[in-house]
Amino acid sequence: MNAEKRIRVAALISGRGSNMAALMEAAQKPGCPYEIVAVVSNRPEAKGLETASAAGIATAVVDHKAFDSREAFEEVLHETLLAFGAELVACAGFMRIMTAGFVQRWEGRMLNIHPSLLPSFKGLHTHRRALEAGVRVHGATVHFVTADLDGGPIIIQGVVPVLPDDDEETLAARVLEVEHRIYPAALWQVAAGKCRLEGERVVMEGWPVDKTARLISPTPDLPESE
Ligand code: GRF
After folding, report:
1. Which of 70, 100, 158, 183 stands 20 to 30 A from 216 (CA)?
2. Which tens digits make up the pLDDT trace of 80-93?
3. What is the pTM of this model?
């Protein structure tokens, strides 16, 4: 694929940036239809900024604390994204709630990853809440961002078992592995034009689904009959 034709993606982060790094790594693979052109953080201390800089990717900080209103913050964020020529926006651990106005400007062009199997456990502390609820499977979701917080149309989900001795940390680590697989996959398909938002539906073309895949947790093995 011609390098000039790759879709320009900006990643929005607030912290560690491991999902951002997974998106960057996939961008190095042959035939990747996107490139990460910029990483923008609302927090100056976000670790992911260092990771991006070390990889030679442009970074910017739009510190929400410097603005009087959400709208004023978003105005500068929007201008920053445009200045980088972003065509798609990948929220990767971006911890700001966005107004409907901002979301509308990027409708169908902004993705988010959420650490739960949506629509379960929207919002914060998803792993703690999954443990409290006693679910046997948990996971992560990549979705298009809409004004409905964590409620946008779903692109891809990954599922992991919840183990009897899990705590928040062990469960988060298992889910994070899945996040790092599903986010690049989703961005790849969206950038390739094989997955798009039409109204409130995600339309896929030529993205295979393994119909034999099953995850049953705990293992359902029964004794052999005599
Ligand atoms: C991830 O679990 C993501 O799903 C959630 O926040 C976490 C960010 O981690 N929204 P990282 O910054 O990508 O390492």
Report:
1. 183
2. 999 999 999 999 99
3. 0.96
